[in-house]
Amino acid sequence: MPRETIISGTTEPDDRKRDAALRPKLLREVIGQKKVAQRLGIAVNASRKTKEPLGHILFDGPPGLGKTTFATVLPNELGTSIQMTSGPALSKQADLLPYLTNLEEGSILFIDEIHRMPRVVEEFIYPAMEDFRIDLVLGDGVNARTISMNLKRFTLIGATTRSGMLSSPMRDRFKMQEHLDFYTINELAEIVRVNARKLDTKISEEAALELARRSRGTPRIANSRLSWVRNFAISEADGSISMEIARRALDMAEVDSEGLDKQDRRYLETLIDVFGGGPTGVEAMAATMNIPSDTLSDEVEPFLLREQYIVRTPRGRLATQKGFLVVGRKQSTDGSSLFE
Ligand SMILES: Nc1ncnc2c1ncn2[C@@H]1O[C@H](COP(=O)(O)OP(=O)(O)OP(=O)(O)O)[C@@H](O)[C@H]1O
């Protein structure tokens, strides 16, 4: 898959390795998301003082914004261990069992994409979350009996790109629910500077800002841009990243100067050229673009909404004037599109 179409959770193995190496280890190393970090800091301090495990935590937000980062920072802060799995890997109760029986007192169980866990597994985990206990059914038919098994007290951390898809009994069992939002240009520039240092690469102030501007508000994308620009600098110059090198490298990767990627542009062009700017439903957009509607609503639309290229109306998605302009279309007086 060409790099510029990777906008998010579609992480390739190399991206995953790079992300893990660059991931902050402690809360104070986390850049941005200040309020979330402060609240977690308080919960961590309280847990240290009371020797009680942290309450269960749910992180939600678009891919690549740091849900896994926060989840992996917390055990470091608490000096405890973490086990990691994901909703799609837990198709039946027996898949979850080894994780529950391996728990240590105060340790963390991280379930990514928790909204994709089937209902039977979800219901199995309720008593574990509430009373640190599970109910196992042994045998079947008339011989079936239920035994209760006590677990070590633990913290469940769930991550989801779609909190709306979680059942409310599940959501209510999380003591803290933290939403992660897109990063500002300055926060992303700071992440780029820190990570360039970790990679032993010199980068100018303005080049860091340029990378930040073209990273779609997302640290994972900033890391991937940095990695490309660094390779470009090594291959084509002396290895340090100046503004000129950053621009040439990003232009070559077809990363546009507005920070949109190809998928964003295709979305806007489809909405405007095929649907006259909308309003139109996400399913119609998905069918026309031949992309799953989940990908559109989880990965593409949140950034376009936040940057006000589109708005959501009761009748569907509507391109704004800014949305028309960024893809070089003009809005006619009746709201439909005119090619420039
Ligand atoms: N607040 C932050 N400060 C510094 N770096 C960050 C921050 N958040 C994320 N990153 C960087 O971005 C990478 C991607 O973040 P992470 O894997 O935590 O995202 P995520 O929200 O869990 O994504 P997904 O839902 O796709 O798994 C991290 O490895 C880290 O290098």
UniProtKB/TrEMBL annotation:
<dbReference type="InterPro" id="IPR008824">
    <property type="entry name" value="RuvB-like_N"/>
</dbReference>
<feature type="region of interest" description="Head domain (RuvB-H)">
    <location>
        <begin position="257"/>
        <end position="340"/>
    </location>
</feature>
<feature type="region of interest" description="Large ATPase domain (RuvB-L)">
    <location>
        <begin position="3"/>
        <end position="183"/>
    </location>
</feature>
<feature type="binding site">
    <location>
        <position position="317"/>
    </location>
    <ligand>
        <name>DNA</name>
    </ligand>
</feature>
<comment type="function">
    <text>The RuvA-RuvB-RuvC complex processes Holliday junction (HJ) DNA during genetic recombination and DNA repair, while the RuvA-RuvB complex plays an important role in the rescue of blocked DNA replication forks via replication fork reversal (RFR). RuvA specifically binds to HJ cruciform DNA, conferring on it an open structure. The RuvB hexamer acts as an ATP-dependent pump, pulling dsDNA into and through the RuvAB complex. RuvB forms 2 homohexamers on either side of HJ DNA bound by 1 or 2 RuvA tetramers; 4 subunits per hexamer contact DNA at a time.</text>
</comment>
<feature type="region of interest" description="Small ATPAse domain (RuvB-S)">
    <location>
        <begin position="184"/>
        <end position="254"/>
    </location>
</feature>
<dbReference type="GO" id="GO:0005737">
    <property type="term" value="C:cytoplasm"/>
</dbReference>
<dbReference type="GO" id="GO:0006310">
    <property type="term" value="P:DNA recombination"/>
</dbReference>
<feature type="binding site">
    <location>
        <position position="23"/>
    </location>
    <ligand>
        <name>ATP</name>
    </ligand>
</feature>
<dbReference type="Pfam" id="PF05491">
    <property type="entry name" value="WHD_RuvB"/>
</dbReference>
<feature type="binding site">
    <location>
        <position position="22"/>
    </location>
    <ligand>
        <name>ATP</name>
    </ligand>
</feature>
<dbReference type="InterPro" id="IPR041445">
    <property type="entry name" value="AAA_lid_4"/>
</dbReference>
<keyword id="KW-0347">Helicase</keyword>
<comment type="subunit">
    <text>Homohexamer. Forms an RuvA(8)-RuvB(12)-Holliday junction (HJ) complex. HJ DNA is sandwiched between 2 RuvA tetramers; dsDNA enters through RuvA and exits via RuvB. An RuvB hexamer assembles on each DNA strand where it exits the tetramer. Each RuvB hexamer is contacted by two RuvA subunits (via domain III) on 2 adjacent RuvB subunits; this complex drives branch migration. In the full resolvosome a probable DNA-RuvA(4)-RuvB(12)-RuvC(2) complex forms which resolves the HJ.</text>
</comment>
<feature type="binding site">
    <location>
        <position position="312"/>
    </location>
    <ligand>
        <name>DNA</name>
    </ligand>
</feature>
<feature type="binding site">
    <location>
        <position position="173"/>
    </location>
    <ligand>
        <name>ATP</name>
    </ligand>
</feature>
<keyword id="KW-0238">DNA-binding</keyword>
<keyword id="KW-0227">DNA damage</keyword>
<dbReference type="Pfam" id="PF05496">
    <property type="entry name" value="RuvB_N"/>
</dbReference>
<protein>
    <recommendedName>
        <fullName>Holliday junction branch migration complex subunit RuvB</fullName>
        <ecNumber>3.6.4.-</ecNumber>
    </recommendedName>
</protein>
<dbReference type="Pfam" id="PF17864">
    <property type="entry name" value="AAA_lid_4"/>
</dbReference>
<keyword id="KW-0233">DNA recombination</keyword>
<keyword id="KW-0234">DNA repair</keyword>
<dbReference type="GO" id="GO:0048476">
    <property type="term" value="C:Holliday junction resolvase complex"/>
</dbReference>
<feature type="binding site">
    <location>
        <position position="67"/>
    </location>
    <ligand>
        <name>ATP</name>
    </ligand>
</feature>
<feature type="binding site">
    <location>
        <position position="220"/>
    </location>
    <ligand>
        <name>ATP</name>
    </ligand>
</feature>
<keyword id="KW-0067">ATP-binding</keyword>
<keyword id="KW-0963">Cytoplasm</keyword>
<feature type="binding site">
    <location>
        <position position="68"/>
    </location>
    <ligand>
        <name>ATP</name>
    </ligand>
</feature>
<feature type="binding site">
    <location>
        <position position="68"/>
    </location>
    <ligand>
        <name>Mg(2+)</name>
    </ligand>
</feature>
<dbReference type="InterPro" id="IPR036388">
    <property type="entry name" value="WH-like_DNA-bd_sf"/>
</dbReference>
<feature type="binding site">
    <location>
        <position position="64"/>
    </location>
    <ligand>
        <name>ATP</name>
    </ligand>
</feature>
<feature type="binding site">
    <location>
        <begin position="130"/>
        <end position="132"/>
    </location>
    <ligand>
        <name>ATP</name>
    </ligand>
</feature>
<dbReference type="InterPro" id="IPR008823">
    <property type="entry name" value="RuvB_wg_C"/>
</dbReference>
<keyword id="KW-0378">Hydrolase</keyword>
<dbReference type="InterPro" id="IPR027417">
    <property type="entry name" value="P-loop_NTPase"/>
</dbReference>
<dbReference type="InterPro" id="IPR003593">
    <property type="entry name" value="AAA+_ATPase"/>
</dbReference>
<dbReference type="GO" id="GO:0000400">
    <property type="term" value="F:four-way junction DNA binding"/>
</dbReference>
<dbReference type="GO" id="GO:0009378">
    <property type="term" value="F:four-way junction helicase activity"/>
</dbReference>
<dbReference type="GO" id="GO:0016787">
    <property type="term" value="F:hydrolase activity"/>
</dbReference>
<dbReference type="InterPro" id="IPR036390">
    <property type="entry name" value="WH_DNA-bd_sf"/>
</dbReference>
<comment type="similarity">
    <text>Belongs to the RuvB family.</text>
</comment>
